[in-house]
Amino acid sequence: MDLTFWLTYIILWGVVILQSVIIFNYMKFTNNFIHKITKLESVTFQKNIEKGSKAPPFVVKDQFKKNFKIEPNQSEEKSLIFISESCPTCKRIINSITPSTQFDKTNTIFISNGDLEAKYKTILIENNVRFTINNDLFQKYNVYNSPLLIKITPTGLIQNSTIIDSIQDLTNLHSSYKVI
Asked: pTM to 2 decimals?
């Protein structure tokens, strides 16, 4: 074999080793940086609302101009379904709602972080499903993913918080939970 082959071979291996050292040092630096950031007292990371914690109280008006309240001593279990105006799963769930869909429509409210398209509003109104547009509740309940179902006990505690993927999830979860 000629000399150029061996020189090329040695140079390529040198480049591979150099790249490996650079990547290793970059990963080490990044890991160290992230570790230092998480240790800073001024930086806090938001957590989802925890099961068993007190639900933040609020009063909102739905599209029918009726109040929907969450308070410490309420008469019944309530459900909050957080949806996003741009979420395809949320839109699919709303499209699946029919008059025969079984869930407690009086104690459940859909909360959107933005204005819904007219056809989705129409579906909710025609099926007597309560909804409101309120971005502040997303922050109050630390909602970062949607569609999210939060069940609240009559004593005002979070019973469960779960992502739902379909109308069947909503009806199954709604019927299977018992008050704790």
From this structure: 0.70
